[in-house]
Amino acid sequence: MEVETPKQFFEEALPERFNPEKAKGIDVIVQVNITGPSGGNWTVIIKDQKLQVSEGIHPAPTLTLKINEKDLMDIINHKLSAERAFFTGRIQFKGNIAIALKLKDAGFL
Q1: Max Cα–Cα distance, the chain, nearest Å
Q2: Is 34 exposed, middle or buried (0-12, 13-18, 19+ CB in 10 A)?
Q3: Which stretches of 1-109 are assigned E, i.e. beta strand?
Q4: Domain ranges of the chain
Q5: Alpha-carbon gap, residue 102 to 25, rounded angstroms
Q6: Of 1, 51, 26, 35, nearest to 101 (Cα)?
Q7: pLDDT per residue as tens, the chain (109 positions)
């Protein structure tokens, strides 16, 4: 299924794509700030192999990602790799890169 908006991704697609087995040992709070007309701020918490998603800003995230809506949708819909977006500066990233790479295995981006 093609995901059309960030909201649809965080509320529908991400919970479906999340792989608890691959999230073993991950304890992270990710703040995702999306620019663009359907953008917004989302908090994704992965702890004890469980996923919790909420709209808004977390006061103390472990990782922060800033990305524009089009690039995010291209990554989600497999038109752009997360690695390529990172290395070409389309994702602004703050935090531990090793944790970010584990998130990909768990189904997040």
Answers
A1: 35
A2: buried
A3: 28-35, 40-47, 50-55, 63-68, 91-94
A4: 6-105
A5: 10
A6: 26
A7: 789 999 999 999 999 999 999 999 999 999 999 999 999 999 999 999 999 999 999 999 999 999 999 999 999 999 999 889 989 999 999 998 888 888 888 888 7
Indicate the fold that domain 6-105 takes in CATH. Answer: Nonspecific Lipid-transfer Protein; Chain A (3.30.1050)
Helix (H, G, I), strand (E, B) or coil at 54: strand
Quick check: helix, strand or coil at residue 84?
A: helix
pTM comes to 0.91
Question: Reduced to 3 states, what is the DSSP secondary structure of residue 27?
Answer: coil
CA distance 5 to 22: 25
Gap between the Cα atoms of 84 and 68, Å rounded: 14
